[in-house]
Structure to design on (367 residues):
């Protein structure tokens, strides 16, 4: 889990903007990974298996926090006078745009941006690689649109 | 590969540069031996266990009344309710077993589909049985109330009063749609948000109008 901590943290943040929710999600993912570990037979890559467990856990959380994807994210706006650096600013803009996406699309694009192949993403989400490619293309187009015309 | 236009936002670079804050939670040194199922499954199981306990408690109450009441009409009504509760409990056991068997390490789509199927099964079960049980409970209650209220020794006396009997049947028939509505409302109140969420995820995953052919975009 340590090796995948970075992506897992980003994923959790995409679904749980509030810190207390994110902490709960982390704890829950850790427990579920531990719970499912005896069933891991090695027929899938460890990373694919791990993200399946993480995403399925995130899917079953947030009951009270559920809202339609079109709703604005509950992210705190940066305080005036504390401009983040350009790189972090870009990352923050991207994060905000990604939170506007439908929930399933967030996972898909996160895995893609992390460098997973379409086959691996398909294996994690249960859809075909072709399907992944089409969706990635579409999501990227949408993100570009939002990022260039916020 | 053609270079990207300068105005295009570099998604990959922005994603890689993101420094997500690490969680504050300190995980336990040794994980607990008995790990509960994922949150939504846990919640559904909790409700089903509560329903099971409720069905057992109610059945015990019915059996007590069955043992002490002399009225054959009430006994018949109560016997139907006992049979209903037994059927509920019997049907809940495989539902609970199926829910417990949902694997959290499946791919997302089959995982969401299996959870959704569980909830739909439960919905059908609850609605159909409510249509039978609630009117029978109402009729039984009507006879019980009528017998006690009229201070009659046996509910069969009520059968000799056609006006009363027709009123009881009318009330029972009126209760059927209300019972179905109530049942639907209870189910929606308990699970609608979760089901909507599962449906939304599945719809997002299935959202393709070109059958996965990237070239046709």
């Amino acid at each position: 889990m340590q090796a995948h901590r970075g992506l897992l943290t980003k994923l959790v943040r995409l679904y749980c903007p509030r810190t207390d929710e994110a902490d709960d999600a982390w704890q829950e993912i850790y427990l579920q990974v531990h719970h499912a570990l005896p069933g891991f037979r090695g027929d899938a890559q460890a990373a694919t298996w791990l993200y399946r467990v993480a995403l399925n856990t995130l899917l079953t959380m947030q009951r009270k926090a559920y809202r339609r994807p079109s709703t604005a994210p509950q992210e705190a706006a940066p305080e005036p006078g504390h401009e983040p650096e350009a790189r972090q600013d870009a990352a923050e803009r991207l994060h905000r745009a990604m939170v506007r996406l439908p929930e399933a699309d967030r996972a898909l694009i996160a895995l893609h941006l992390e460098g997973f192949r379409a086959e691996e993403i398909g294996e994690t989400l249960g859809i075909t690689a072709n399907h992944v490619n089409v969706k990635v293309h579409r999501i990227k187009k949408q993100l570009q649109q939002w990022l260039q015309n916020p | 590969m053609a270079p990207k236009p300068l105005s295009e936002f570099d998604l990959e670079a922005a994603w890689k540069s993101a420094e997500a804050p690490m969680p504050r939670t300190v995980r336990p040194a040794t994980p607990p031996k008995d790990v509960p199922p994922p949150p939504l499954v846990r919640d559904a199981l909790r409700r089903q266990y509560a329903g099971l306990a409720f069905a057992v408690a109610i059945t015990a109450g019915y059996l007590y009344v069955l043992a002490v009441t002399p009225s054959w009409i009430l006994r018949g009504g109560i016997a139907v309710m006992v049979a209903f509760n037994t059927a509920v409990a019997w049907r809940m056991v495989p539902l609970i077993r199926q829910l417990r068997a949902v694997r959290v390490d499946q791919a997302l789509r089959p995982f969401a589909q299996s959870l959704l199927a569980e909830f739909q099964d439960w919905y059908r079960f609850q609605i159909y049985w409510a249509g039978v049980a609630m009117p029978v409970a109402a009729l039984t209650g009507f006879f019980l109330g009528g017998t006690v209220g009229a201070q009659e020794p046996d509910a069969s006396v009520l059968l000799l009063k056609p006006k009363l009997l027709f009123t009881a049947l009318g009330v029972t028939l009126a209760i059927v749609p209300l019972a179905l509505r109530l049942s639907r409302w209870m189910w929606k109140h308990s699970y609608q948000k979760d089901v909507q969420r599962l449906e939304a995820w599945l719809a997002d995953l299935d959202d393709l109008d070109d059958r996965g052919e990237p070239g046709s975009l």
